[in-house]
TrEMBL record:
Protein name as catalogued: Pilus assembly protein TadB
Keywords: Cell membrane, Membrane, Transmembrane, Transmembrane helix
Domain of life: Bacteria
Biological source species: Intrasporangium oryzae NRRL B-24470
TM regions (residue ranges): 16-39, 122-140, 146-165, 295-315
Cellular component annotations (GO), alphabetically ordered: plasma membrane
InterPro entries in UniProt: T2SS_GspF_dom (IPR018076)
Membrane-protein topology: Multi-pass membrane protein
Source taxonomy: Bacteria, Bacillati, Actinomycetota, Actinomycetes, Micrococcales
Domain (Type II secretion system protein GspF) ranges: 189-313
Major site of localization recorded for this protein: membrane
Compartments where found: Cell membrane
Length: 325
């Protein structure tokens, strides 16, 4: 008898019927689609009602438009996109924190798109709910007893964990990117100081360093140069870099360049001093992390190695005493 036969037999013993379950799921899905397609659910919003009157050009022919691939397999993404967007709005109303999400997306180097992030949270929550449902089903099969409250509770816990995990992943991505930028900062600052010492101006030094380097900080500097070429002055573009990252070292770096550009003060020594400060800060952080790891290393020594050593030291004496008694 295979494992599938065993599972089917246990489900049958628990009172589950696969045809009945399948019919119930299909019936529930059909009723959900009927309710979602009622007139009150598909009522056009303000944007759809005003769009025909505000359009200033006729719609081009569909033959001239590029064909967009279907979202998801068999176009299911386009089918469920409105419902996912609505659920994302519900998540936004429940959790809030749209400015925090936008800030972390900027820190992670992602385009600011709160609706897309909420939709991703909905998908992660759905995946967590499926995992919770499957886990509760396995527990019910093993115990041959179906508890509906536990089933619902585990499903909602899985949904909540999925939403929280996606939010945590965004924070982790932002933190990892900032750590890479800090690791690249001393080298970038040294290259800028070398270029300025050779006679380059601030803009020329930034362009040369951006051509020679690759990384997260170099990409941000290229974005600043692109903003400067688009019409913004260099101090304003660099201030955008400080606002997007939120690192104190980069804020001091931007302030030094802005002061040097506006007042004509020497820039090379300032950049070298900032690079040295970042190296010292990284060394201090490494020492602090090493101290924390040293404390964690004491846990297996105290709770595993030391008891075994004491046991080996005391066991011969205890065995001898028991033999004499």
């Amino acid at each position: 008898m295979t494992a599938a036969d065993v599972v089917l037999r246990r489900l049958a013993d628990a009172g589950w019927s696969w045809p009945g379950a399948a019919i119930g799921v299909l019936l529930l899905a059909g009723l959900s689609l009927v309710v979602a397609g009622l007139p009150h659910a598909r009522r056009p919003g303000l944007h759809e009602r005003l769009e025909p009157y505000l359009r200033d050009a006729p719609r081009p022919s569909r033959l001239l438009s590029s064909h967009k691939p279907a979202k998801g397999p068999f176009g299911l993404g386009e089918l469920f996109a409105p419902y996912i967007a609505r659920l994302g709005g519900v998540v936004e109303r429940v959790l809030g924190g749209a400015p925090s999400v936008a800030r972390r997306q900027q820190r992670a180097g992602l385009p600011v798109d709160i609706d897309r992030f909420r939709a991703e949270q909905v998908l992660w929550g759905a995946a967590g709910g499926v995992v919770g449902l499957v886990g509760s089903g396995l527990v019910a099969v093993s115990k041959r007893h179906v508890s509906v409250p536990i089933l619902v509770l585990l499903t909602f816990i899985g949904i909540g964990l999925g939403v929280i995990v996606r939010d945590t992943m965004l924070s982790s991505a932002a933190k990892r990117r900032e750590q890479r930028m800090l690791a690249e900062f001393p080298t970038i600052a040294e290259l800028l100081a070398l270029a300025v010492s050779a006679g380059e101006g601030a803009t020329g030094a930034l362009e040369r360093v951006c051509r020679l380097s690759r990384g997260e900080l170099s990409d941000e500097l290229r974005r600043c140069l692109a903003d400067a070429r688009a019409g913004a002055n260099l101090p304003t573009a660099l201030q955008g870099l400080a606002d997007r990252t939120g690192l104190m070292s980069l804020s001091r770096f931007v302030d030094g360049i802005v002061v040097a550009v506006e007042r004509g003060t020497p820039l090379a020594e300032v950049l070298r001093a900032q690079a040295q400060d970042v190296r010292e800060d990284g060394r201090r952080t490494l020492m602090e992390e090493g101290g924390r790891k040293e404390i964690l290393m004491m846990v297996p020594v105290v709770f595993l190695i030391l008891p075994v050593t004491v046991l080996f030291a005391l066991y011969p004496g205890l065995s001898f005493l028991r033999f004499r008694l």
